[in-house]
Specification:
The protein is built from no helices and eleven strands. It is mainly beta. The strands form two sheets. Strands 2, 4, 5, 6, 9, 10 and 11 form a seven-stranded mixed beta sheet that branches. It has a four-stranded antiparallel beta sheet with strand order 1-3-8-7, with no helix packed on it.
């Protein structure tokens, strides 16, 4: 399996931006589709964004569409989540995940997970 480490979280005011990174190691990164998920206190983990192995296809949750952008650099073994116009409801622990094959919105399809990075958005 691939090992994943997220970074870039922090505390921002509403309307601000953050860029999350997820560095992968252990296997050929380009062989994995990647996903970002988030989990807020007292809520279930939810899909945020996904990207296929080559970075050609992406998918977003309706709640972040138009504000968040997922991208990847296979030369750097890293996937990114650019988050703009952040809202208090975006406050959560953000986790990246990896799976072989095509990307999915279903967390059950992802065997590899990072530890997460906290994002806190104040109003």
């Amino acid at each position: 399996q691939v090992q994943l480490v997220e970074s870039g979280g922090g505390a921002v005011q509403a309307g601000g931006s953050l860029r999350l990174s997820c560095a992968a190691s252990g296997r050929t990164f380009s062989g994995y589709s990647m996903g970002w998920f988030r989990q807020a206190p007292g809520k279930e983990r939810e899909f945020v964004a996904g990207i296929n192995r080559r970075g050609e296809d992406t998918s977003y949750a309706d709640s972040v569409k138009g504000r968040f952008t997922i991208s990847r650099d296979n030369n750097k073994n890293t996937v990114y989540l650019q988050m703009n116009n952040l809202k208090p409801e975006d406050t959560a622990v953000y986790l990246c995940a990896a799976r072989s094959g095509y990307y999915s919105r279903d967390q059950a399809h992802f065997p590899s997970w990072g530890q997460g990075t906290q994002v806190t958005v104040s109003s």
